Every structure is written in C-alpha cells, then in structure tokens.
Amino acid sequence: MKYLSLTLSSILSITYITAAPTYTSRCGIGYGECDPGFCCSEFGWCGQSNSHCLISNGCQSEFGKCIGDISTNGQCGPQNGYTVCPSGRCCSEHGWCGTESIHCGTGCQSEFGQC
Fold it and tell me: Chitin-binding type-1 domain: from which residue to which, for each copy (predicted)?
C-alpha cells in the first residue's frame, strides 16, 4: 500500500508539472508574463483571442505577445502600429502587405501575415 501511495503521488506530481498552460493564467503587474505565444489582456488574463491579443483592445505588450488590427492601408508590422495583413497576404521586411516574392520571401514577417 505504501508503494502504491508513493507511485500515485509521483504520477500526480509529474502531471501537475507538465500541465499545459491555460487561458486562465494571470499576467501584468504583480503577476508577470504569460507563457510564450500567449497575450496579456487589458484586464490581466493570458489568452490567444482577439480580446487578449489586439493592441486596440488593450493588450499589454510588456507581459505577452500582442498584435495590431488588420491593415487597411497595405502597411504592416511593428513599424506600422503592429498591423496585420489581411488573410492570404504576406508582410514584407519593409512593412508592406502583398502576395509577391518580395513580400513572402526573405525577411517576411510571419507574425504579421502569411509567409
């Protein structure tokens, strides 16, 4: 019985340690950063929805990943307010949306469009 108890306890500990991050994790001042790939919402919660990630919704870039709104003028990337290209378009290294090799090739910014 002692062996079974120890084994069960070990399994539970391992499961807890390797558990995947959840969208209910807190972030911000007093909590710290979100896990990689997650955004910190205006209200201090980690997640991956537009409510968490869009700068226009108050995403806190110092505590997680943030993205801008969809570009309406063909410009993208950090130099253009973190705007994202419309679906199917790439964001060039110089911050322009498009579908040509100059946009989708070397230097394409995958965080802001398709590459």
Answer: 24-68, 73-115
Q: Is 48 helix (H, G, I), strand (E, B) or coil?
A: coil
Give the three-class secondary structure for 32.
strand
DSSP string, 54-107: BGGGT--TTSS--B-PBPSSSB-BGGGTTBBPPTT-EE-TTSBEESSHHHHSTT
- What are the counts of helices (DSSP H) followed by strands (DSSP E) for the chain? 3, 4
Q: Are residues 74 and 35 located together in one domain of the fold?
A: no
- A 10 A CB-CB count for 106 gives 8
Burial of 51 from C-beta contacts in 10 A (0-12 / 13-18 / 19+): middle
- Clarify whether residues 108 and 80 are in a common domain: yes
Amino acid at site 115 = C
pLDDT, one tens digit per residue, over 35-82 is 999 999 999 999 999 899 988 899 999 999 988 889 999 999 989 988
DSSP β-bridge partners for residue 96: 75
Into how many domains does the chain fold?
A: 2
